[in-house]
Amino acid sequence: MPTINLAKADSDKLEQEEQISKRSLIIKAMLISYSNPKSILFLSAVFPAFLNQSQAVPVQFGIMFMSIILIVSSIHAAYALLALRMKSRLVGAKSRRIMARLSGISFLGFGCGFMYDAQK
């Protein structure tokens, strides 16, 4: 009689759902980044200064926007790779203890700074 390995089936299903959720998370993050109104307003205000009125404007806008998309995508990819690399170093108990101490020290520093400002 054949046996069914339910644990493996559940594991495969969970892994498949995790892949889908990672993919959808990446797509959502990229859409949010590209549709950032601050970036769009900034680029719309800055780009006209670099346009050559004697040439086709839509082509120039296309080249500029593709350049910005490439630069921003490269920066985000670098952040993602850095985070992936740092994740393995920051999940240990020793790293957590160090991070807890550093954050505690920074909050104490902020508190001292606020007290100093309040006395002025």
Describe the structure.
The protein is an all-alpha fold. The longest helix has 34 residues.
What is the fold's blueprint, element by element?
Layout: H1 6-34, H2 37-46, H3 57-90, H4 93-119
Write a brief caption for the model.
The chain contains 4 helices and no strands. It has 120 residues and is an all-alpha fold.
Average of the residue pLDDT scores: 81
User: What share of residues are in beta strands?
Assistant: under 5%
Low-confidence stretches: none
Rg measurement, Å? 24 Å
**DSSP strand count:** 0
Order of helices and strands: HHHH
Total helical elements: 4
What is the helical fraction, as a range of percent?
A: over 70%
Backbone shape: flat
Largest sheet: none
**Helix/strand class:** mainly alpha
Report the span from N to C terminus. 83 Å
Features:
mainly alpha, flat, 4 helices, 120 residues
